[in-house]
Amino acid sequence: MILVGCTIFAPLVGQNISSETSSTPTETWVTVFVHGIKSIQPHLSLSNFLKFMTDDIENTVYSKTVDYMRKDSFFYKNQPMQGIGLIPVDRSEENKKGNAAGAMAMLFDEIDLYAGKNTTNHYYTYGWSGLMSSSVRYKESAHFFAALEEEMKKFHQHNIYPKLRIFGYSHGGNVCLNLERARQKEFPNSNLKVNELILIGTPIQGETDFLVNGSVFEKAYHFYSDCDRIQQLDFFSFDRFFSERYFKEYSNFTPSHKVTQIQLKVTRNTPSTRRNKKKYTLAKNFNNAGIITGNSHLVRDASPGHSELWFFGWTPVNYRKEFPLNPFPCAAFAPYIIYELEKIKDQLPSPQPIVVDLRPEHETMLIKKQGSIELFTVAPLIPQAKLDTWKLQLTPYIPDLYTPKEYNQHIRLAYEHASLDYAKENINGNPQALKNQNKVQRLNNQKKLQLKQKRLVRKKTKLFHESLHVQMHCPFCEHTATTAHA
């Protein structure tokens, strides 16, 4: 293990990096998954709104809550996310319940095999604070840049020169875009290249949009959905009220032709179409304008929301059970979509957006001009039989007791402990702070007794939700107990 700054590097856990040189040469890829922010919904008060607008969130209950949540592995179980820093996905733990990063790596390998690619893949996650702050995202990108350079050097020392692919989800995409700013300001002599930057549901903002043209990125693909209600709701950008869905030209910026923008749609048959063979046949008549656009009584729009772009179907919130691609995150199909787009890249109007319309029930995807019935191609989608096989392969990764109630309880635990930490630090200005700390002390004194006397656990009490902290074996109580005696 090599420690660089605040980032941990553990190269290629479970993989023999030197063995590649003695095997048949293959194309090698390093793929890094970068998560988005942690939800700010519980913190949207007037005072916090002003702090978000001025990017002044340091040492707030919000920042402390996110810090607790970010350290809670419970939130790693539904998306490719691990601890802070650049961390390899441990392939030896692939079948472990809740190893969502391993599940995504498995799917990427399967898609490469299905597409006939002879590649060697190494997967990582880059974990950052997850705070809603443009200045924090830049600082994180500088750490990210240094981590990538260090990790690529380790490959080069073994005469392996991999290509680099980075997936950035939501504001994780803006962390990735800031790699270009970090290169300009802090690493001007670096030779680091990101061969593929893939953005998933990223809010497009004036602070970072122009960076997509930067020299650190060889190609960029931006996937978004018109049914993603979260993407545009970040109104804490300094130069526009709401974020954009895609990169648009304006006075000082024109997205370059290396940028491919993809409006991702998912279209399904209506219930009556699924029951009627004649209607089913009509629904795949791609000479019909209504079928192409989706404006037909035979089909309906089921395009992904923000969570369905990135999270697995077992996530407790905002992933529809009836979503046609359940339990897959749409991001898992991005390499295959890019594989098909590369076949017709000369036809595409980059950087203008195109539509990729997935039709799982017909095992096809329509690639067409946005706002038009003009088709570039009707490409094959991965067949349902293969998807069913992959669903079975995902079964060992599904965590136990991953319910909305459990999910919300973990958020509440983080918030309560963050509130107490904040009170402790601001004890002179908050007369309730000492009282709150005493409650925490009493909680820890009673913990063993409550575990022995289950009737006390079931007893309703207003004292810091004691039963919740005991029942859930709260991972934060030890830390708070320490601060209570500080």
Task: Please give the structural blueprint.
Layout: E1 2-4, E2 7-9, E3 27-34, H1 46-53, H2 61-71, E4 85-88, H3 100-114, E5 119-127, H4 134-156, E6 163-169, H5 171-186, E7 196-200, E8 220-224, E9 259-269, H6 271-275, H7 277-282, H8 289-293, E10 299-301, H9 334-343, E11 354-359, E12 364-369, E13 375-380, H10 384-394, H11 404-425, H12 433-452, H13 454-458, H14 466-471, H15 477-484
Parallel strand pairs: 3-5, 3-6, 6-7, 7-8, 8-9, 9-11
Antiparallel strand pairs: 1-2, 4-5, 9-10, 11-12, 12-13
Keywords:
486 residues; alpha/beta; eleven-stranded mixed beta sheet; two-stranded antiparallel sheet; 15 helices; globular; disordered C terminus
Give your account of this protein's structure.
The structure is a single chain. The protein has 486 residues and is α/β, with parallel strands linked by helices. It folds into 2 domains: 1-400, no CATH class; 404-484, no CATH class. The protein has helices spanning 46-53, 61-71, 100-114, 134-156, 171-186, 271-275, 277-282, 289-293, 334-343, 384-394, 404-425, 433-452, 454-458, 466-471, 477-484; strands at residues 2-4, 7-9, 27-34, 85-88, 119-127, 163-169, 196-200, 220-224, 259-269, 299-301, 354-359, 364-369, 375-380. Helix 11 crosses helix 12.
Number of strands: 13
Which stretches are low in confidence, meaning pLDDT under 50 for 5 or more residues running? 1-23, 455-466, 481-486
Major β-sheet profile: 11 strands, mixed
- The dominant shape is globular
Averaged pLDDT: 84
Q: Give the strand content.
A: 15-25%
Query: Based on helices, strands and strand pairing, what is the structural class?
Result: alpha/beta
Percent range of helical residues? 25-40%
Task: Give the distance, in angstroms, between the N- and C-terminal Cα atoms.
Answer: 32 Å
Elements, N to C (H/E)? EEEHHEHEHEHEEEHHHEHEEEHHHHHH
How many helices does DSSP assign? Answer: 15
Count of discrete structural domains: 2
As a whole number of angstroms, the C-alpha radius of gyration is 24 Å
